[in-house]
Amino acid sequence: MTNPIDLLRERGFVQEITDEAGLRKLLEAERVTFYVGFDPTASSLHIGNLVGMMAMAWLQRSGHRPVALAGGGTGRIGDPSGRDDERELLDEDAIRSNLRRIKEQLSRVVDVSDPDKGLMVDNYEWLGQMGFVEVLRDVGKHFSVNQMISREAVRRRLEEREQGISFTEFSYQLLQAYDFAHLYETYGCRLQGGGSDQWGNVTAGVDLTRRLHGAEVFGLSWPLLERSDGRKFSKSTGSAVWLAADETSPYAYYQWFFNTPDADVGRFLRIFTYLDLGDVADLVAQTEQDPSGRAAQKSLAREATRIMHGDDGLAAAERSSRILFGDEPFTELDDQTLMDAFDGAPAVTLPKADLESGLGLLEFMVQVGAAGSNGEARRLVNQGGVRLNNARVDDATQQLGSGDLASKTTLVLRVGKKRYFLARFV
After folding, report:
1. Which of 102, 138, 196, 377 could pair with 365 in a Cys bridge, judged by C-beta atoms 3.0 to 4.6 Å apart?
2. Closest by Cα among 125, 28, 111 to 70
3. Nearest to 82 by CA among 124, 49, 128, 127
4. C-alpha–C-alpha distance, residues 18 and 199, integer Å
5. CA nearest 59: which of 34, 79, 91, 26?
6. What are the φ/ψ torsions at residue 69 (nearest 5 degrees)?
7. What are 20-29's pLDDT values in tens digits?
């Protein structure tokens, strides 16, 4: 039987392990409880978090028990890793809302419905009960300030004399390390996983658990999600692809994976799908032989979208893609899909009452910025260069009404081959 470490390494989930020989032996000898932490400082997880979720899913499929730790306590502090500035502190209602959404998103990938199979916990349950003196006495005494300062995330912030780092964020690593000790004591947790940017926090937790409980525990990290061109995807860099459908639509999610460069598609198939590695190799070979066919990208987009958005979400994404990239008129799409599909196009908000009472096409073109005057708009229509919701417009006197909407609120205007304009009627 394949050792879970080999499985994870083959699929791209292993960068560092604190004691690989010891962890191999443990995973072969018993059912291991392990945990991965998730930060609730945004209303949705993103595909960077999905790397960890998929690693958890593979370990769970190998017979081990996952604990998804939602950082309701540490999220009130803020992790300085990967940051050049201080995080904004969220209010209680925002954190509770984020935690609910995180559990819903995690549940699509990791089974946390039964504590025997897997569970989700909130570290505010124990960190919120600890007093300042207790933290300093029971946790802080085990940490060297010299080592804490040497961490890259802390050192970089200290070198920025104007920004610096608050004691709040500086102390974050104490709390995350204590999480491991608590989960070991409460659930028998023996392994913590995390992205490579968390390696300092992971090893601190391993060390603290050993000091407090004399326990042999382990840490494992996976590479941060990057493309072959070095581009990273995270909320810190402002380039996140969100897992929540109301923040990144299934269509946009599908298209992001479909547009994966050839150099990355094999790696992404291994990370973001459950496809057999032999099938992955076949798909990559097909794409190398026929790049224009994009066989690997099509499978990646389909499988990744199905995992996160289900069969219905996949069907909606494929239908939207057929409409938006085909010749038929845009109809029965949703507002978010249109905003995602035409991200970067000029967009205006207009009164819905104007549309309901009848809005002249030429006036509409001026309002959205497609023409400087009614006369210019008329010339564009007469030249055959105007499309409304992908349908060619020939009548410059046309009156627009609610029946012309491509979605519940949105109209899409195209002038020429590439100039798009969106109007949302509210």
Report:
1. 377
2. 125
3. 49
4. 10
5. 34
6. -95, 115
7. 999 999 999 9
Residue 356 near residue 402 (C-beta atoms within 8 A): yes
Provide the whole-model pTM: 0.83
User: What value does the mean pLDDT of the chain take?
Assistant: 89
Tokens 């990208």 — which residue? 297
Q: Which residues are registered as beta bridge partners of 232?
A: 226
Residue 87's pLDDT band, with cuts at 50, 70 and 90, is low
Q: What's the confidence (pLDDT) of residue 89?
A: 63
Beta bridge partners of 222: 195
Closest CA to 124 of 95, 97, 153, 149: 95
Task: State the pairing for strand pair 33-38/65-70.
Answer: parallel
Query: Taking 50 as the threshold, does the pLDDT of residue 237 lie above it?
Result: no
Q: In this predicted structure, which of 15-24, 149-158, 281-290 has the lowest mean pLDDT?
A: 149-158
Task: Say if CB 25 and CB 65 are below 8 A apart.
Answer: no
**Burial code of 230-243, b = ≥16 C-beta within 10 A, e = fewer?**
eeebbbbeeebbbb
Closest CA to 414 of 394, 383, 385: 385
Phi, psi dihedrals of residue 359, rounded to the nearest 5°? -120, 125
